[in-house]
# Entry
Amino acid sequence: MSSTPETKPSAPHADNKKAPVSTGMPEHISLDKWADTGYEWSGEVKPRSFDRLATTLSTEHEQSDIQLNANLYRRNNVLHLAFTLTGDVWLTCQRCLQPIAIDLSDDYDIALLENDSQVRLVKDEQDYLLLDEIVTEQSPERLLPFKKLVEDEILLKTPMAPKHDDCEMSVEQFGEIPEEEEGENPFAALASLKGKL
# Structure
């Protein structure tokens, strides 16, 4: 009976490596099941499948799928979520209002700490999160919000106000701009009272 838990995780683990794209990106990863044995997932993800990202995407340009390779592993007794994104998303340039491609291609590695005492086990430049702050409590098992964490990193990678380097602002002027009339300075009266008080 002790051999069953050891062989069980490796079989789905191997299946996940070969999982067809149609299976879709998992929302969560069960830490109870995969934290010690490791977990891998590879596939293509539609940018619009991320709810928060979808609100920022350009509707003027077709969005291509993003390639995602993810790996949950343990190193030096610290759990890590590492993933590689390859691809780009199309946002709207805030100057010309035309689509602009934002490259998301990068490698990410987040240390998932059980508590504050594990901070000393990770390098200074290492990104880390406390599991207590990100693991959902509604379920009897501990679920890592995999899709949300990937989306968080994508949102951090995309600029808040994307703009082309070489475009003009899309502004149309109607009519003439009225010249400002030089009116009386409201503080002039105060200046004249300055010496009298």
Summary: The two ends are 97 Å apart (CA to CA). The chain has one domain: 3-165.
